[in-house]
Fold this sequence. Notes:
- It is a single chain.
- By secondary structure, this protein is mostly helical.
- It has one domain.
- It has 4 helices and no strands.
- Helix 2 packs antiparallel against helix 3 (39-47) and helix 2 (12-35) runs parallel beside helix 4 (53-62).
- The radius of gyration is 14 Å and the shape is elongated.
Amino acid sequence: MVSTIQTWLMNPAVLYPLIIWSIIWKGIALWHSARSSQLPWFIALLIINTVGLLEIVYLLFFRRKLRY
């Protein structure tokens, strides 16, 4: 089973969109955490790679609303 998943993830047609997806969500989440001075979240989002899942959870439930 692991071999099948590894083979599937190493396919460039799957890997490249997955990398782009992850970078976009990470960038948005890091920007919001930095602007809100949420250092623990910033560090966690920077270090932990979850293919965008942690970033989406942060943006939906934990980010502070910015006032301009």
